[in-house]
Design brief:
By secondary structure, the chain is of the alpha/beta class. The chain has 14 helices and 15 strands. It has a six-stranded parallel sheet, sandwiched between helices. Strands 9-8-7-13-14-15 form a six-stranded parallel sheet, sandwiched between helices. The protein has a three-stranded antiparallel sheet with strand order 11-10-12. Helix 11 links the parallel strand 13 and strand 14. It starts with 8 loop residues before the first helix and ends in a 12-residue tail after the last helix.
């Protein structure tokens, strides 16, 4: 499914939305601190353009989104109340928050909307049917969501971070209502299509994070397309172990060692591993760092970052790249003493971008690291809002929330 073949927000606006109710699935899953304050509003900011365009066109907006992973029912700590306030600031208008998902309060508020009003439903995952594996349960919730916007309603899919999930507010709702890709989803697909096809070379991929198993599919997919794949983060230790090195107390997926060995044999000219590591005794911000060669990690220490030599070598490689995809930090960037690898890679990508390279930050922890390190978003060509969705797209997997948008429009008679 290509972005050009999907019905777009522009086509919906051309049809006219004044006085119509529109259900928008946004990705507002922002991180909160212990006091419930938002620590990174990136996804709210990214979601605003689609919502603003609909508000400006006179639509009555009903927005649905999730926050965290509530278990089986409502959890006050995962209420969308702080999100509603932050979204209101972005849109410059009051955003109502329903007291339930599709219950009496949501229905009453939806019926009372006037042109340009915005209603945010409470955390969609408070209703366990949202993530149910039972098609009938999800469809039942989707029907109730559709009732909130009535027979002339429409659905706009704008939560790219969830389009790889077959969930009621992502997939099933699009089988009931006329459906369209929002600005954010359309832009994400366009960028990822470019990474899969019309890439300028050299093409460099930077992969970090904790587990090789999470990135195996994208390694196998991109190893045949990219000129180099830089491996850092916790996942690098399984590769180092595959080379026969001891990794001490570092993170290790023993069941993936043979797989990494096979990858190194097959893609020896593409995969790039760190040559030095920052190690320490304990997983703690105040644990003193030491610098060792990647093949000489002491048995009683653990690696928490790539070393200065690796930062310099990877930086030189990235400085010459014309296309860069980055997903996953190089170390425990939350600890200042172990953030240098992630900062060094990020700054190298920023430098390449300034010289004209096309750079994509693949969401998730990478996007969080960019903001934690105070690097401006616009220093990169694109920062994705969906880490998992980006990876699955690049692996060539079918994303249910995108596939369903390419289907013929329902006539609304099945509600």
């Amino acid at each position: 499914m290509t972005g050009s073949s999907l019905p777009t927000l522009e086509s919906l606006l051309a049809e006219g939305v004044s006085s119509r109710s529109v259900l928008v699935r946004s990705d507002l899953n922002v991180p909160l601190d212990d006091e419930g304050a938002i620590t990174d509003a990136g996804r709210i900011i990214a979601s605003a353009p689609t919502l603003q365009a609909l508000v400006d066109a006179g639509a009555k907006l009903v927005v649905t989104a999730h926050l965290g992973r509530p278990k089986g029912g409502p959890d006050p700590k995962l209420s969308l109340a702080p999100v509603a306030a932050a979204l209101g600031e972005q849109l410059g208008r009051h955003v109502q928050l329903a007291g339930d998902v599709v219950g009496p309060d949501a229905l009453a508020r939806a019926e009372g909307l006037t042109d340009g009003d915005v209603l945010l439903l409470e955390n969609i995952r408070f209703d366990p049917r949202e993530t149910s594996k039972d098609d009938g349960e999800r469809l039942a919730l989707a029907r109730q969501l559709a009732e909130l916007v009535g027979p002339t309603g429409a659905f706009v899919s704008d939560g790219f971070g969830v389009v790889h999930r077959k969930q009621a507010s992502v997939y099933d709702i699009a089988t009931l209502l006329p459906h369209y890709a929002g600005k954010l989803v359309a832009d994400e697909i366009k960028v990822l299509e470019q990474l899969c096809s019309s890439t300028k070379r050299p093409y460099a991929v930077v992969l970090g994070g904790s587990k090789v198993s999470d990135k195996l599919g994208v390694i196998e997919s991109l190893a045949t397309k990219a000129d180099s794949i830089v491996i850092g983060g916790g996942m690098c230790f399984t590769f180092l172990a595959a080379q026969g090195y001891s990794v001490g107390k570092s993170l290790l997926e023993e069941h993936m060692i043979q797989t990494c060995r096979d990858l190194l044999d097959t893609y020896a000219d593409v995969l790039r591993l760190p040559g030095d590591i920052v190690v320490t005794e304990n997983f703690a911000a105040d644990s003193p760092p030491q610098f060792v060669a990647a093949n000489a990690i002491p048995d009683d220490l653990m690696g928490l970052d790539i070393g200065p030599g690796s930062i310099k070598r990877f930086g030189a490689l990235l400085a010459n790249a014309e296309t860069i995809f980055w997903n996953g930090p190089m170390g425990v960037f939350e600890f200042p003493a172990y953030a240098s690898g992630t900062r060094g890679v990020a700054e190298a990508i920023v430098g390449a971008t300034a010289k004209g390279a096309f750079s994509v930050v693949g969401g998730g922890d990478s996007a969080a690291a960019v903001r934690a390190l105070k690097i401006p978003d616009d220093a990169f060509s694109h920062i994705s809002t969906g880490g998992g969705a980006s990876l699955e797209y690049l692996e060539g997997k079918t994303l249910p929330g995108i596939e369903v948008l390419g289907r013929p429009q329902p006539n609304g008679g099945d509600l």
